């Protein structure tokens, strides 16, 4: 395994830090969000991160891991070196990241939540998904999180916000002033965007 370089990058959520690697962890467009250790059964690296008593959430995407801490009074400067060293050593040693392929899991979950939309809803949903993938997701990933389409019904778009976006003070503003405005402008059928996974 070649040497892994890794750096920490702040996110808009003061409790979340993005650790960016020069290595691919997941295929582009696939991500996993573990709000607690119980949810991380599929990911040995996430389970190990939860062993640090200040880690409250782990989000993994193509080339970064976002860690959200549970102790606001604990400064990042004291814990970044420890987390960075752990992730670097784990990946360099070829440690198991996932026991089940997250891409397959994501596909199955999307199929299960799609239900049986009308043909028109199906066209609208596809337009929304394309806009989220091409315009919104890259910006959200820059901030250490992710957005995924959950459903579209009667003008209401439901999305999932993951990683640093969950619990971020600016997530609701971003959702309403940014994402909702974009979708309403580009897809006139959209009346509102609501999010799951936002802890206010």
Quick overview:
By secondary structure, the protein is α+β, with helices and mostly antiparallel strands. The chain has helices spanning 44-50, 76-92, 102-114, 119-142, 171-186; strands at 6-10, 16-21, 32-34, 55-60, 64-69, 145-153, 156-163, 192-196. The relative contact order is 0.17.
Describe this structure in words.
The protein has 200 residues and is α+β, with helices and mostly antiparallel strands. It has two domains: 6-101, Scaffold protein Nfu/NifU, N-terminal domain (Ribosomal Protein S8, Chain: A, domain 1), CATH 3.30.1370; 103-196, GMP Synthetase, Chain A, domain 3 (2-Layer Sandwich), CATH 3.30.300.130. It is 38% helix and 24% strand. It has five helices and eight strands. The chain has a five-stranded antiparallel beta sheet, with helices on one face. It has a three-stranded mixed beta sheet with strand order 6-7-8. Strand 1 and strand 2 (16-21) form a beta hairpin. It is globular and about 50 Å long. The mean pLDDT is 84. Belongs to the NifU family. GO terms for molecular function: iron ion binding; iron-sulfur cluster binding.
